[in-house]
Amino acid sequence: MSYTANELAALLNGQVIGDGSVILNRIMPAGNAVQGDLTFAENKTFFTQAINSSASAILVDYDITPCSQTCIQVPHARVAFARALALFFPEPSFQPGIHPTAVVASSAKVDPTAHIGPHCIVGEHVVIRSRVVLQGLNSVGDNCVIGEDSRLFPNVTVYHQCQIGKRVRIHSGTVIGSDGFGYVFNDGIHLKIPQVGNVIIQDDVEIGANTTIDRGAMESTLIGFGSKIDNLVQIAHNVTVGEHSIIVAQAGVAGSTKLGRYVVLAGQVGIAGHLEIGDRVTVAAQSGVMHNIPDGQKWLGSPAQPDKEAKRTILATFKLPELMKRVSKLEKITEPNRSTILPEP
Fold first, then answer.
1. 156-303: in CATH 3.30.565.10
2. Is the peptide bond before 321 cis (omega within 30 degrees of 0)?
3. Does residue 172 carry a pLDDT above 70?
4. Bridge partner residues of 58 (DSSP)
5. Is the distance from CB of 88 to CB of 105 less than 8 angstroms?
6. How confident is the model at residue 338 (pLDDT cuts 50, 70, 90)?
7. How much is the CA Rg of the chain, to the nearest whole Å?
8. pLDDT of 37-48, one tens digit each?
9. How far apart are CA 345 and CA 343, in angstroms?
10. pLDDT of residue 161
11. Which residues contact 163 (CB under 8 A, 6 or more apart)?
12. Would strands 212-214 and 282-283 be described as parallel, antiparallel, or unpaired?
């Protein structure tokens, strides 16, 4: 899809400096841009690269001037870049209807604007609302609800009684509502505790590929509004993830832990069970959290500590080899006089 600079500026709430009639066919990084391309510059370093490129126009912040070629000035270049990408590369559309190979229970309520793709299974009393897309090979268990404009990519499985909000995106291989890991040791065996809760995913959530979100033991596992969960993440039973949180790949959150709003868990973070993680907490990559964290703090390390304490520990660790050498020298000096300094008992 192509736009003039003027058309694109109107869609991005920006203004054009230069030739507003120039035709833009796609958006590309400065190093790969050619005539007909739009590139972007979120700071002065990138702007220098952009003006030396072959791009026909540059997307820039308002405070980057002057422009020697056509520029579209916007309040925030990176935000506008994300919106421009969606304009130039729209997602594929899916026609309403149910594929002949899909198996849909007679009691299910499927909105006529929804798309049910090949080999999907839709269980009893499922509610699928307007413009939902099940791309193919999806299984939706009994009594589930999927809200407006949500999209399940191929091979997503949603177990029974789960609720998915509006505009939710769930990528391939992810399982929603599998049994929580609950057992009690009895007479030499691990006796399974039935997991009879569900999963509730609120609006505007995106969940990456091959992620697992377990159902609650008796209540709900909850993923809050606007949260984004990466690939290969494990969310255990009864966990609450607060609104607009970010959980990066290979992180794991153990049972009954509660994450606040705007929490960031970096890659490979592990959170122990039954903890309270406050609002706007950031946990650095590969950290192991074993304690509650108050609002607004940054923790790192394993076991994790507040960032200033953890950094002091790390710096001290780097000095250990030199410290060991110094101790060894002191031992050699004091060893001949050891019996007089510390007589044997």
1. no
2. no
3. yes
4. 39, 71
5. no
6. low
7. 28
8. 999 988 888 888
9. 6
10. 98
11. 144, 145, 198, 199, 200, 201
12. unpaired
The closest of 232, 274, 225, 227 to 252, measured between CA atoms, is: 232
- Which tokens in the block code for residue 37? 């391309």
Could you report how far apart the first and last alpha carbons of the chain are, in Å?
89
pLDDT, tens digit, 9 for 90 and up, residues 53-106: 999 999 999 887 777 789 999 999 999 999 999 999 999 999 999 999 999 999
Name the residue ranges covered by the structural domains of the chain.
Answer: 3-88, 156-303
- Return the structure tokens found at 159: 């177990």
**Catalytic site positions:** 237
CATH of the domain spanning 3-88, picked from 3.40.1390.10, 3.40.50.300, 2.120.10.30, 1.10.150.80: 3.40.1390.10
Q: What size, in residues, is the chain?
A: 345
Which alpha helices (DSSP H) does 131-287 contain, by range?
none
Q: What pTM, to 2 d.p., does this model score? A: 0.90
Q: What is the DSSP letter of 106?
A: T
